[in-house]
Amino acid sequence: MRGSRFAPDRGLTTRMVGTMFLIGLLYVVFVGVLVALLRGSWPVVLVLAGAVFVAQFWFSDRIAAFGMGAREVTREQAPELHGAVDRLCALADMPKPRVAIADSDVPNAFATGRNQRNAVVCATTGLLRRLEPEELEGVLAHELSHVAHRDVAVMTVASFLGVLAGIVTRIGLWGGLRRAGGRDQNTAVLLVLIPLISAVVYVISFLLTRMLSRYRELSADRAAALLTGRPSALASALTKVTGQMARIPTRDLRQAEPFNAFYFVPAFSKESLTQLLDSHPSLEQRLEQLGRIAARLGGA
């Protein structure tokens, strides 16, 4: 891949392009339908849709970091974390992102940002306390690969489409009903159609992001293992973090769940263990892939 030594992944690139095309098409159709239904409020719908999309894209790193409770730290405040990121960025030949820590006992890490210059890599205090240095480097390499492959930007845009659909729907519906006076038959039709359209948009965007998310996690595991040459360290971190999740209070897991698509390991509360469309591949899939990479590296 241009700009870093992380192993390129054509499958990931193809999936990202396809997902962004479908998400963009869905977004255009959604706004177009709202404009057609809310004829009197189309300027509001267009201006709001454009403004929210631009703001979300340009400030996605700050929005995500704020939502997850991340605070940027200096080298003096977190020397070991900065040292690990420095070594990995030198090894990968990529710009160093901002480094942050989230005060949470949930052991996890994430990366966010629309490009390498605006990227943030964050680890929770729970992760830093539980992992050995080589395990932490494996996790950080996984997150840096998301930045290098630019899939974190795609996930940021795709993940917020459902939220955006809800906001535009509320404003557009409110404006349309206000102009219509809330009394005629057309108003009743709008009350049924617009929430239904919004729900369809959310479901489709949810399915698209889940499919991309599962593949990108396997891609990041593979790229991190090949870069560091220590797939066993990443496998150990995966096993340890997944096992520790069962000991985290349910309330903390529920607070972390909305950001699962960005995390190294999903934070699932007991009630959500049965969900069919996970944001991450199973632990068995990830360990099996790392085992194959270890065998290949050992043979080489």
UniProtKB/TrEMBL annotation:
List the keywords (alphabetical): Cell membrane, Hydrolase, Membrane, Metal-binding, Metalloprotease, Protease, Transmembrane, Transmembrane helix, Zinc
Q: What residues make up the catalytic site? A: E143
Q: What's a Pfam family this protein contains?
A: Peptidase_M48
Q: Could you say which EC number(s) this protein's record lists? A: 3.4.24.-
The primary location reported for this protein is membrane
Q: Tell me which residues bind Zn(2+).
A: H142, H146, E217
What start and end residues bound the annotated signal peptide?
A: none
**Molecular function as annotated in GO:** metallopeptidase activity
Q: Which top EC class applies here? A: hydrolase
User: Which sequence ranges are marked TM in the entry?
Assistant: 12-35, 41-59, 152-175, 187-208
What does this protein's record comment on cofactor binding?
A: Binds 1 zinc ion per subunit.
Membrane-topology annotation of the record:
Multi-pass membrane protein
Domain Peptidase M48 residues, every copy: 77-291
Which domain of life does the UniProt lineage start with? Bacteria
Cofactor(s) required for function per UniProt: Zn(2+)
Q: Where in the cell is it found?
A: Cell membrane
The record's comment on protein family reads: Belongs to the peptidase M48B family.
Name of the protein this chain belongs to:
Protease HtpX homolog
The protein's organism comes out as: Streptomyces luteosporeus
